[in-house]
Structure prediction request, 289 residues.
Amino acid sequence: MDTTKRAFAAVVLFAATIAKPLLAQELPSNAKKYAPMPWHLVDTWWDIGKEQVFESLAVEVTISDDVPASVNLYIAPIGLGHLDKTPFYGGIQTQSDGNTRSDPKLRRIGPGLLFSMWNERKVEAIRPAMGGYFQSSGHEGDFVSARRPYQWTKGKYTYRLCRMDREVVDGEARTWVGAFVYSHEKDENIFVGALRFKGEKLLLQRKVANFVEIYGAARPVADIPKLAITFGSPVVNGVLVKGATAEAVYPLGVPDVAETEVKDGGLLITLGEERTVRPKRRVKLLVEP
Prediction:
């Protein structure tokens, strides 16, 4: 299994652990059997053409409707990326969790914003936002994560990662990368937190994913919200990527309720009724010359 597949599998496994403290719900006896939670309803992959020296990465996301807090939904504008060989991801959740240095007990923090990185365990590699939370664990592979409570609603947001300051740790260069979410409706910029990556001249690898996920305790398919989510084309170092290709992947073993199409240079994902037939699980959506 290559690094990208291992990292993406780790994202899924980590999300599954969030479900453990949650109360399972009784499902109808005739309910269709699916893979264990979490359910990635769709993964969309962008190929930006080449690796690039990293200064910033931004992805717009538009959410058509408010989502009830009772639905565990994870919308990830950056579902997976790599700076050098270090995988990272981040996005918006209806129900998140975290802890602080003064109180290591993991607790629910409600709707929130996340930025996570694999292959690290040191809490010194995390800068939570003021009033924010973090997590460090090794139960499904080493990772660190910054989390911040935020009462997000429907609307348009830009999830942005930016290179920040550098430092030397044990004689080796490290670079801090900060995550910010901009609300277009409220005209406010929210600092999610920062993580410390290995290296000085970080290279952003050419594959960047988005995903939409249902996590937590198993629940009826009918509870998955009817929703439209639009991911914009990646913006690297302040420049919209030209000539990018995109592909949608519909995983097996989950409710087949997502449909993806190209719209205005982005990817529109519609959550709706469950499909009974899907001829292709990998669909190329956007190819520009």
